[in-house]
Amino acid sequence: MNYLASVGSYAIMIREVFKKPTKWRIMKSLIYKEIDELIFSSLGIIIFISFFIGAVVAIQTALNLTNPLIPRNLIGFATRQSVILEFAPTFVSIIMAGKVGSYITSSIGTMRVTEQIDALEVMGVNSLNYLVFPKIIAMLFYPFAIAISMYVGIFGGWMAGVFGGFLTSTDFITGLQTDFVPFHIAYAFVKTLIFAFVIATIPSFHGFYMKGGALEVGKASTTSFVWTSVVIIILNYILTQLLLG
Amino acid sequence: MIDVQDIHKSFGDAHILKGISTTFEKGKTNLIIGQSGSGKTVFLKCLLGLFVPEQGNIVYDGKKYAELSDDEKRDLRQEMGMVFQGSALFDSMTVEGNVMFPLEMFTKQSKSEMKDRVDAVLKRVNLIDAHHKFPSEISGGMQKRVAIARAIVMNPKYLFCDEPNSGLDPKTAILIDDLIKEITEEYNITTVINTHDMNSVMQIGEKIIFLKDGLLEWEGTKNEIFKTDNEAVTNFVYSSDLFKKVRQMYIQEQN
Asked: What are the transmembrane regions (chain A) (predicted)?
C-alpha cells in the first residue's frame, strides 16, 4: 500500500514539475549549472570505469577463446557488443544512480531540512519546477556522456587486446565492423534517455518528500540509490524485450 | 490587516486548530505564543497559505484566501515576506544573491535597479560589507538580518517570522526584535511573529495571542499580559522566577 502511495506521489510530482514554469532567464542559468554538476563533473569517473571495463571484456573474451577455429577478431566483436548494448548504457547508469542520484537526493533533502524549499513555496515559486526541471533537462545531455563511455570502452578493449598481445589492431577493427547493426546504437540511446529521466527524478522524489534531519538525508540518499538501481534494472529488461526481443 | 475567522485544521485524527478567530492589525507587531504542540506553527503555516484550513476563512485586506484563483494566490504570496526559524537562506547563493532572488523571480527590473534595491535593504538591516559572503561564512545574527532583508526586499504587506531570535544571544535577539518592530512601523506592514521568547513578548508585543491545545486562550497587549488572571497564560509567561519578579514589580508600580 505504501509503495502504491509512493508511485502516486511520484506521478503527482512529475506533473507539478512541468507546471508553472520559472522565468527563462533564471531557468537557463540553473540548467547550465546542473549540466556542469551532473554531466561534466561525472565524465572523469565515466571515462575511468569505461576504459577498464572495455579492457577487461577484451581480455576475458581473449582468454576464453581456446578453440583455434574461432577467429581472433571475435574479441573486437564481443567488446563492441558488450560495451554498446549493456556496459555503457546500463552499468554506467547504475554508477550514475550512485554518484549523481545521491548528490540530487542529498542536495534537495538538505534544502527540505533547512526550510529552503518552504522559503521557495512562501515566495510563490513552484519549487518542484525550480529544483527538478533543470535536472531533467541537464540529464538530456546524458547520452553524450554515454557516447563517450562507448568510445572509451571500445578503446580500452583495443588497448588491452593489442598491447596485451591477444590480437592485432587490424583483427580488432575487423571484429568491430563485423555484423554491425546500427539499430543497436539507437536501442542503447533510447535506454540511456529513459535511464536519464529515472536518474533525475527518483532521487529528486526521495529528497523532496523526505522528513526529518541530517540522518534522514543520508538514509534518503541510500534509499534513492536502491530504488533508482532497481527501476533501471527492471526497465532495462522491459526495454530489451520490447526493442530487441 | 489579516482577519482570521474560525479556522480549523486537522492532520488525520489529530485536530490541531479548533476554531481560531482573531485580527492582526497593520503597522503592528502581532505575536503568537504558546507551548510546544499548541498549534502555533500550523497556525502560522495556515496564514502563509502553506496549509489549507478545512473550515473558516483567512482574509487579507478584504481578500478571502480560499476564494482566490491560483494566480491571485501567487500574487498574494508575493506580498508576503517570511523569516524562518533557521533563516532558510539558499546556501548556494551569496548574501546579495539571496536578497536579490525574489526580485529576479518576480520583477522585470534591470540588474542595476535590483542591485540598488538590494544595497538599500542590506543597509536597512545594518549589513554593509557582507554582499559577497555565503550564508555559511556569516554569523547566526547576520543570517537572520539577511533573511529579514530578503523578506522585505519586495516591499511586502505582510511579514511573518517563525522564532526569529531562536539560537541567538540575548543582545543580538534584542537587536533583531527592534529591527522587526522598526521595519513594521516604517513600512506599515502587518507583522505576525511566532515566538517562545518572553523577552520579545515584553519588548515588541503590541498584540499577543496565546494558543493552548489549538484554541485561542487569551489575547491582549504586552501591558495587559502583566495584569491577566488567566492561569494558563501566567503559568506559561511567568514560568521563570525572573519574570515572576518583573510582574510583581509591575503590579506594585501600577498600584
From this structure: 38-63, 83-106, 127-145, 151-173, 185-205, 225-244
Domains held by chain A: number:
1
pLDDT value of residue A194: 97
Q: Provide the number of CB pairs (under 8 Å) joining chain A to chain B.
A: 47
Find, among A58, A28, A57, A45, the residue nearest to A97 by Cα. Answer: A45
Q: Where are the domains of chain B?
A: 1-79+156-221, 93-155
Please indicate whether, in this complex, the C-beta atoms of A124 and B106 are within 8 angstroms of each other: yes
User: Scanning every residue of chain A, which has its alpha carbon at the shortest distance from the alpha carbon of B45?
Assistant: A122
Domain at B1-79+156-221, CATH class: alpha beta
- A32 in a structural domain: no
Determine contact, residues B130/B138, Cβ cutoff 8 Å.
yes
Question: What is d(CA A222, CA A98) in angstroms, rounded to the nearest whole number?
Answer: 9
ipTM: 0.85
- Say if residue B241's pLDDT is above 90: no
Structural domain including A122 reads: 39-244
pLDDT, tens digit (0-9, with 9 covering 90-100), for B92-120: 999 999 999 999 999 999 999 999 999 99
- What per-residue confidence (pLDDT) applies to B185? 92
Indicate the residue type of A190. Answer: V
Q: Which CA distances in Å does A212 have to A5, A110, A115, A207, B68?
A: 19, 10, 11, 11, 32
Helix, strand, coil % over all residues of chain A, rounded to 5: 85, 0, 15
Mutate to test the interface with B, among A22, A112, A116 (most CBs of B within 10 A): A116
CA of B249 vs chain A CAs: smallest distance (Å): 41
Residues of chain A with Cβ-Cβ distance to B82 below 8 Å are: 119, 122-123
pLDDT below 50 — which residues of chain A?
none
